[in-house]
Amino acid sequence: MKIVVSGSTGLIGSALVPRLVREGHEVMPLVRRRVTPGERAFSWDPEAGTIDRAGLEGAGIDAVVNLAGENVFGRWTPAKKQRIRESRVHGTRLVADSIAGLARPPRVLLAASAVGYYGDRGEEVMTERSAAGDDFLAHVARDWEAATAGAAAAGIRVHNLRFGVVLTPTGGGLGKMLPAFRVGLGGPVGSGNQYFSWIALDDAIKAILHVLATPNLAGPVNVTSPTPVTNREFAKTLGKVLGRPAVLTVPTFALRIAFGTEGAAMLQSGQRAVPIRLLESGFRFCYDTLEPALRHLLAA
């Protein structure tokens, strides 16, 4: 297929693009710069609301994977929160409405979302049929997903990929944790009782390919392992794999100093999300439990 990818240099995109190429697909990234003559890419500026519609029209694209969005890590100032929301909602709406208006729209749009959609619901198990939550990230995710409505109305098969924490030692949550855990200074965050919905990067990429190739799937898809764990269990398992103690709790006051009140609350909340739609459609995980996943990732 001819596949347009936004966020192609991000945590997931940088692993997805070479995998798509190895599978024989032609990948055309959306980039925030001027495209050079002959380059198979399209320029866009989500903040300005501009995108190369003429280029998209002439390319004959079959699918779009939209992964762009501001990183949620960092201190949650009002400006940071605005970037988190607008980079997701405005960017997704620009992509969805643009491809909906093409004379030959792509068959499928895979749009990133997150399990934060469900809010913090304690031990309640979240499936794709669960209702949205009521905190900041839940509101962002709800509007993020709603931004794909134009594409769905045009008959494009739309999937909102509700990612859990994607595990890779090269970045994201695990990448930020590793330095402390490697010297024995890691441990649970806050109470440690909040659930941690995770997925190994290998399985996240495999899930994207599966959704692209499975036309009878419908609606949102939880891209998480089937075995979420508590934050305390995650810290204990990571310490075990590294051969280091993992008992130093990160206190709430320290999180508030580093991330602000709302950012700290986000780090102490969690979702017990399970991938019902992936499993029902025949998807098989390479790493469905945490310890083998971490041993694979850290050995690699």
What would the principal axes of the Cα set say about the shape? globular
Class by helix and strand content? alpha/beta
- Helix count equals 11
Provide the gyration radius in Å: 19 Å
Count of distinct structural domains: 1
Q: Helix coverage percent of residues?
A: 40-55%
Question: What order do the strands of the largest sheet run in, or round the barrel if closed?
Answer: 4-3-2-1-5-6-8-12
Number of strands: 14
CATH topology: Rossmann fold
What is the makeup of the main sheet?
Answer: 8 strands, mixed
> What's the CATH class label?
Alpha Beta
Please name the fourth-level CATH homologous superfamily.
NAD(P)-binding Rossmann-like Domain
Average of per-residue pLDDT values: 93
Give the amount of beta strand, in percent.
Answer: 15-25%
Structure notes:
By secondary structure, the chain is of the alpha/beta class. The chain has a single domain (2-167, 197-226, 273-286), classed as 3-Layer(aba) Sandwich (Rossmann fold). It has eleven helices and 14 strands. It has helices at residues 13-22, 53-59, 78-100, 136-146, 149-153, 172-182, 201-212, 231-242, 252-267, 276-280, 290-299; strands spanning 2-6, 26-31, 42-45, 50-51, 63-66, 108-114, 125-126, 157-163, 165-167, 195-196, 198-200, 221-223, 229-230, 272-273. Helix 3 links the parallel strand 5 (63-66) and strand 6. Helix 1 (13-22) crosses helix 7 and helix 3 (78-100) runs parallel beside helix 4. The longest helix has 23 residues, at 78-100. The two termini are 30 Å apart. 46% of the residues are buried.
